Structure to design on (140 residues):
């Protein structure tokens, strides 16, 4: 019997909070020597996230790669929905779509984005689906 993933929600009220949370989560995975995949909706948002991770935190940066662009493996890897993350154990979902394929996933990170009514609706739909799938839900 496979264990269903845990979905951890980070509540944000301002878009600026997302970068800090993403950065801290990535740093935690690096310290634990555990891989983290960051799933972006499209190439534009993936590039934006990549640029931010090279600049943040101000005291340094987060070493990462974009799947398919570098051969070097890093603990933090950015990817798009059409790319395989079938062996991921932890993934930070930055897309509007829930992750419904469990595969090897142990941990899914999501934003509970309260910065805009439309983003709150997206959160509520994803939350309901994860709940219906029997995933463990927790707030951070």
């Amino acid at each position: 019997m496979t264990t269903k993933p845990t979905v951890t929600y980070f509540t944000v009220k301002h878009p600026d909070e997302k970068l800090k949370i993403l950065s801290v989560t990535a740093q935690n995975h690096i310290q634990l020597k555990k891989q983290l995949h960051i799933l972006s909706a499209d190439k534009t948002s993936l590039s934006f996230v990549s640029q931010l991770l090279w600049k943040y935190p101000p005291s340094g940066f987060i070493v990462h790669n974009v799947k398919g662009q570098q051969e070097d493996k890093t603990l933090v890897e950015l990817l798009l929905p059409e790319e395989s993350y079938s062996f991921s154990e932890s993934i930070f979902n930055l897309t509007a779509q829930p992750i419904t394929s469990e595969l090897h996933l142990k941990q899914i990170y999501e934003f509970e984005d309260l910065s805009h009514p439309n983003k709150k609706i997206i959160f509520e739909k994803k939350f309901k689906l994860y709940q219906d799938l029997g995933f463990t839900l927790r707030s951070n």
